[in-house]
Amino acid sequence: MAAAAKPKNKIKNRRTGFSIKRFLFTVFMLMAVLTALLFLINKYFFKITNILIITDDKYSYEEVLKASGIKEGQELLGLDVKKIKENIKDSLTYAESVNISRIPPFTVRIEVKSEKGFFGIMLGGDYYIISRNFRVVDKIKVVGNIPAGIEFTPPDGIITIETDEIKKCYMGDKIEFKDADIYDFFKDITELADENMDMVAAINSIDIKNKFKVYMNYGDRLLLRLGVFENISSKILNSFEIINSLPDYAKGIIDMTNEKTASFRYEENVLKLYKNEKNK
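RESULT FIELD:
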């Protein structure tokens, strides 16, 4: 009696199953070999021998290196970049941004940018420098360090803000104001600077002690009467148009208290007038 023939579809299924198993085994072996190869390369070849650090004047090479915790001889591919960033930001108070790159076969690159001063506030006998993020990034002792009869000059590029609304001001912390509107004022000025840096850089000081009588000293040659606190950024922007229409040597008063109209009057002794108006 002849044996029954095996169905062709069963044979085909067995062959297909065998092929899939062989394929999966091959893929597994390739992954295992690749993993082992990467491990050996990382362990014996990709060792850190060059640590490139790019930073500004706030922190030195050694300070950034110590904060990072990176050592020569570490495995390059095994670096925990996220953890290193956290270490640097925790150790270096004023580190605003940290970028880390691994450059095979042996280099790691660290770039640290610190918060820069933008505003300045005189408080007691000290001049505090504030960043765009409202952090106090520096302090200059004025009383006792500046000879009698000599007026203190803030660092270049710092806009002095005169206000009585200071609640808290400590090095490394964010400044706190009694009036929350002051934060919006800061933001308005920084946003103006993004589009009009040259113009904003010429502002010496802004007096906002009285929210209904805001004054600005522009380059020690122009006094801007900005009136009430509201819409301050649009008023400043409009004043820039007037300033650009004046000759560079012009001194005087720009009156922006009326948002619909603006006027300019020549005045030689602007600084004296500025002090007199603030003391009214």
